[in-house]
Amino acid sequence: MPRGLVTLGHVAVPAALGRSGRRAIKREGDGATPIGRWMLRRILYRADRLSRPRTGLPIRPIRPDDGWCDAAGDPLYNRPVQHPYGASAERLWREDGLYDIIGVLSHNERPRVRGGGSAIFLHVARPGLSPTEGCVAVPLATLIRLLGRLRRGAALIVHA
Q: What is the pTM of this model?
């Protein structure tokens, strides 16, 4: 199911999930959101569109050349990169507003499994909570409100 409740901090919120629903075992490109408890490592945001969100998490503005490697065979798979990049890498500077705020989640971080899924973020939802490519998305106002309550050690839980 491409929608569900996720727990962020101590609050359960409706969220858009991957077009293929939720899976315990995530694979690159499967369109599923990984089930589990994922730490929020840092927040990235579009300073040209939004004021710096209030949060107790590490935060920095997104730059136009920011990317995230999604090439399973690349040494920087599931890591931030700068464009232009020699392998496949998602652009974080998007025009559609979905990445105006990104919460970087700890999915497939340590140990990092090549092909185990990359760029699984908490981000801004499309209208109507339409499905994501595997991320978790909530409305912008909800995301801004929740960020103000979060501190280091905060986690997002995607329930089975």
A: 0.97
